[in-house]
Amino acid sequence: MSPAVESTAAKSLVADGLVAGYGGQPVLHGVGFTARAGEILTVVGPNGSGKSTLIKTVVGLIRPMAGRILLDGRDITPLSPAQRAAAGIGYVPQEANVFPNMTVLENLRLGLDFLQTKGSTAFEERLAEVLDLFPEIGGKLSARAGLLSGGQRQMVAMASALMPEPAVLALDEPSAGLSPRNAELLFEIISRIARSGVTLFLIEQNTRLGLGASDHGLVLVSGEVRLAGKAADILATPDIRRLYLGGA
Ligand SMILES: Nc1ncnc2c1ncn2[C@@H]1O[C@H](COP(=O)(O)OP(=O)(O)OP(=O)(O)O)[C@@H](O)[C@H]1O
Ligand SMILES: [Mg+2]
After folding, report:
1. CATH number, domain containing residue 227
2. How many whole angstroms separate alpha carbon 215 and alpha carbon 208?
């Protein structure tokens, strides 16, 4: 039997001293952060700095060698990915985040079925709430997800992850491959999701866009936290791109 979702309210997500990698030398060297309930925390950093490794460690796909992860103060480090999902952590990976041969509606139904068996009324109700956030995919429910544009596919992936009403939504580079306008639209939706009572833990390549929409930020370089604090303060740091992000 699938585990039931525990709560629908936003929860804080805290990591402390995470050391993690893929079996050889660790990629993360003692990474910590605090995302308060209902806020947006964005991780930025150069390619290969360990951002995806960090989010995979948070959702349980990678077991840390040291450190722990707390959801609303509860230590979830021993939990499997499925148990963390049931505890309220939704996850949209950087790649392969929809089932391309299934319709949009089937993808959304799987988002809920994965965690629990709810009656069709509950499904219809939640579907309406989620489609209210993503009106653009409402007209595409019977289309195959693989035939949608990159932006629409990203919306389906996020909508599926939202179906079981997670307390935390972890997104790995949600704006990757989108036009600047579509990336902006996506971040407007992300802000609405946070205001609806979900804690957002984001990885983002577009520093200005990601931090601009966030409460707090973290700059990860070579698996270490170089800067952490209010997103606006990080954005205002002189030379941040040249010093930390390898950009102009
Ligand atoms: N499956 C894997 N097995 C072994 N090493 C890996 C694996 N995935 C990533 N790595 C290594 O871990 C390091 C960090 O990779 P990671 O994917 O976390 O970076 P990232 O910050 O998400 O980069 P990007 O911005 O390109 O997505 C890199 O050196 C990478 O080669
Ligand atoms: Mg990555």
Report:
1. 3.40.50.300
2. 13
